[in-house]
Design a protein that fits this description.
mainly alpha; 19 helices
Amino acid sequence: MNEYLIAGRKLSLPAFVLSIVSAWYGGILGVSEYSYTYGLSNWFVFGVPYYLYALIFALFLAKRARRSELLSLPDRFQMAYGTNAARLCGGIIFLTAMPAAYLLMLGKLIEWMFGLPYHVSLLIGAAISTLYLFRGGLFSVIRTDMIQFALMYIGFAVMVVTLYLKYGGIEFVRASVAPELLTPTGGQAISAVLVWYVIASTTLVEPLFYERSFAAKSDKTVIPGVVIAVLFWAVFDLALLAWFSKKPPNENATIVSMLLAGGIALVWRLSGFWTGNGSYWLGVEPIFVGLAVSALVLPQRLEADNDECGMMNNELGQNLEALLCGDVGAICADPV
């Protein structure tokens, strides 16, 4: 049961981070419309309050959850309030976690890609997802989360590159949208923004956070794991836009850094088979080796730029791309 539901409590820090980053970026239906209508307010509504509560969870609840050695939130209710409370908790979690929106999107994707009727596409998507999940349990979820993480960041980076090259950077945005859309409220009353700082408190009882905490290798994994995840969410929300505010990336530098960082990270991961005890060389996780390599290589490959601010944005963005394109490929080979 432990192996199936919580991956045998073997989730490493990289797997924990990549899984929670991609899995928690849900509930996105309507977000694009909100951005179109209220602009920058999107970040102050769907970003900042959730970062804050995720950090509160990390600091005050994550270790306690891991040390509890439970399998689910209903187990906690069973211990504290009895069977009826546990059943009620399980029912509420089922209703709030139903993947109806995602099945709808998956069905639409299959319909669009293969030209099948929508209802057939929906059933195919649901069947594939269900069978894959039943076969491997949480391990299957973690592997797909890693793939989603890579697609999430690489796809967003490609989109921003394309938009920059076609339309320009932040100056184009300023010239093309109403000024109030670049304010924290987006032209709304302040109360419309602040209410989300109450709604976001549901993060403290988010089943996903507890499940990943239960599955972590130790209580030393969960706090840094959630903090790093918050940093990744902030990068996804802001850093890629800043990257293109001045100039496009140096393609050759990105490719060299991506290949070198990914190759070294892959070799580092394989070292777990060569050391005899399953640990990596020097006890360092491959993701951090790849990040260090990309950070060291890129500055040597970038062209000179008199605009210091533009250079900093360029280096930051390309380091992120090298990490995401190179290291994620190596990490996906073995989630734990």
